[in-house]
């Protein structure tokens, strides 16, 4: 959730809730409610203020981070190729399950 990400970035910057609210020019109570997931739909303007103080792009607050090691460009291209070739999600899942089974058999 957005509030969890705001809190994570704030703590990474070693900022108190009061410091972030003050520097961003937002209400401390609203920020607290957001971080505690009591407020779930902050405005883009609000997020822009928070992101500016945290020195991060707004989309880091909106979207979950993806570990680049887990999903690099080669993996993205591989998935796109599979999709374009007509491989269904179910076929892809079946292949992964078969591969896990095969690896398990080799370990025995």
Structure description:
With 108 residues, the protein is mainly α. It folds into two domains: 2-62, lambda repressor-like DNA-binding domains (434 Repressor (Amino-terminal Domain), Orthogonal Bundle), CATH 1.10.260.40; 73-107, no CATH class. It is built from seven helices and no strands. The radius of gyration is 21 Å and the shape is elongated. The chain starts with a helix and ends with a helix.
Features:
108 residues; 434 Repressor (Amino-terminal Domain); elongated
Write the layout of secondary structure elements.
Blueprint: H1 2-12, H2 17-24, H3 28-35, H4 44-54, H5 59-62, H6 73-84, H7 89-107
Helix pairs in contact: 1-3, 2-4
Largest sheet: none
The CATH architecture of the largest domain would be: Orthogonal Bundle
User: Which CATH class of the largest domain is shown?
Assistant: Mainly Alpha
Helix-strand makeup class: mainly alpha
* Assigned CATH superfamily of the largest domain: lambda repressor-like DNA-binding domains
Rg, alpha carbons = 21 Å
> What count of domains describes the coordinates?
2
The portion of residues assigned to helices is: 55-70%
Residue-averaged pLDDT, rounded? 87
Strand runs, count: 0
Instruction: Quickly count the helices.
Output: 7
At the third CATH level, what is the topology name of the largest domain? 434 Repressor (Amino-terminal Domain)
Specify the overall morphology.
elongated
Low-confidence stretches: none
Strand content: under 5%
Roughly how many Å apart are the termini? 42 Å
H/E topology pattern = HHHHHHH
């Amino acid at each position: 959730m957005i509030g969890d990400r705001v809190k994570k970035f704030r703590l990474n910057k070693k900022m108190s809730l009061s410091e972030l609210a003050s520097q961003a020019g937002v209400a401390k109570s609203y920020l607290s409610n957001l971080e505690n997931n009591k407020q779930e739909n902050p405005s883009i303007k609000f997020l822009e203020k928070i992101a500016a103080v945290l020195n991060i792009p707004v989309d880091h607050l909106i979207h979950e981070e993806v570990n680049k090691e887990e999903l690099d460009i080669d993996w993205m291209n591989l998935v796109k190729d599979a999709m374009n070739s007509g491989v269904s999600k179910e076929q892809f899942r079946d292949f992964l399950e078969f591969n896990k089974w095969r690896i398990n058999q080799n370990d025995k």
